[in-house]
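re: ur question from earlier - yeah i can do the single chain one, its not a big deal. heres the input i used so u can compare w yours
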Amino acid sequence: MPDRHPEHAGAADLQAATALAQRTAEAMWPRDAASKLIGLKLLAVRPGYAKMSMIVRPDMANGHHMCHGGYLFTFADSAFAYACNSYNLNTVASACHIDFLASARVGEQLEAECEERSLAGRSGVYDTTIRNTHGKVIALFRGKSTRISGEVIAGLQGEEAQPAQRIADR
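and the output i got, formated as tokens:
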């Protein structure tokens, strides 16, 4: 079975693929109303990886004075979206699951880190971990992705897209 992990690509391919992942994220961000609505910030993106942050606001609290699980799911799902679309190939969720392990309180800053675990053909598996600033794990999210037709940056052709495609096709 071929090695699909970006870190095993050549340095030039990885640098070009990382630049493409960043351009792809920059193209997605203006259209991503949901992430902006809840105040997410994109901290890092590279092939198969994304990291975001969120501050739990008072309007995100449930009746127990903790962050509502729906916001945590949205947060993890957004990091998953940036990671699985990082190859500039339109990709959507086919299934997701989240385990809530600890509560997050109003005012806490959280980070969601999403990493590709498997990519085979049109299907991928990604794990997102949500942590607070003390490193405590708040939630674990697993997303399964499916590639659909098209590109995030439509019409991107030639040398610019080839390194990311080589990494995605490994």
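The radius of gyration is 16 Å. not sure if urs matches, ping me
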